[in-house]
Design a protein that fits this description.
alpha+beta; DNA Binding (I), subunit A; binds zinc ion
Length: 233
């Protein structure tokens, strides 16, 4: 009687081990190398995902994207080697194709820092957690094309800003300050120096009415006299 129970336990153990080995052999050995990036949108009311992405690219970050693409290509080569060496080529190929996801290789998360509280020994403590509000994914080609379009406008603004119909609104205090500093408080036509900013204008070289954009390369400092002469023409 007892002999029988021992026999059953050993048999069950052997079956379990066999199943475990089979699981190890047949489970998918491939894991797609996704690119993950987190945008901190704390304090932003209506964050525009594409704008965040453009700003990310404007800061010269395409190099990270490119490096990751090389990593993906390297991974593909290694996978193909693994398949070639495998005894179950067809099965492995199917598994490989299942994880392949170039269209959504790059994932960008929009996260917000939230303050949470916990009670400890009658003392209220606060701590911050990053909560993902939303995310979007895209392919390398999409990012490549977007970067090319930003490169064409010298990474001066986001595409949304560039295509905005309301170019006048884009003239912010910060941008004005940037142009004044770049041009050193000096009229770009007559050379008048205006350190007190009296009569100083930030002018659109190509007027907005003629399709000029509010981007640094289309802006210059003028004195009121030169600005007046320009608008009289
Ligand atoms: Zn002038």
């Amino acid at each position: 009687m007892y002999d029988n129970i021992e026999y059953i336990i050993i048999l069950l153990g052997v079956v379990l081990i066999i199943f475990f080995i089979l699981y190890l052999i047949f489970k998918n050995p491939f894991k797609y190398p996704y690119f993950n990036y987190y945008f901190d949108i704390s304090g932003k009311r209506n964050p525009d995902a594409k704008n965040l992405l453009d700003n990310f690219l404007n800061q010269g970050n395409f190099i990270i994207i490119k490096e990751h693409n090389e990593k993906i290509e390297q991974w593909k080569i290694e996978c193909k080697k693994k398949i070639e060496q495998s005894k179950i080529k067809k099965y492995r190929t199917k598994q490989y194709q299942k994880v392949l996801n170039d269209k959504e290789a790059y994932i960008f998360y929009l996260t917000r820092n939230q303050t949470r509280y916990k009670q400890k020994n009658y003392i209220r403590m606060s701590y911050k957690v990053a909560v993902t509000e939303s995310y979007f994914s895209c392919s390398y080609d999409y990012l490549f094309n977007r970067n090319e379009r930003l490169k064409a406008i010298n990474y001066e603004c986001t595409l949304k800003e560039y295509n905005s119909n309301n170019q006048r609104k884009l003239m912010t205090k910060e941008l004005r300050k940037e142009i004044i500093n770049r041009d050193n408080y000096t009229c770009q036509l007559c050379g008048k120096y205006m350190p007190d900013e009296v009569g100083l204008h930030v002018d659109h070289i190509i007027p907005i009415s003629k399709g000029g954009k509010t981007i640094p390369s289309n802006l210059q400092v003028l004195c009121s006299k030169c600005n007046g002469n320009k608008s009289n023409k």
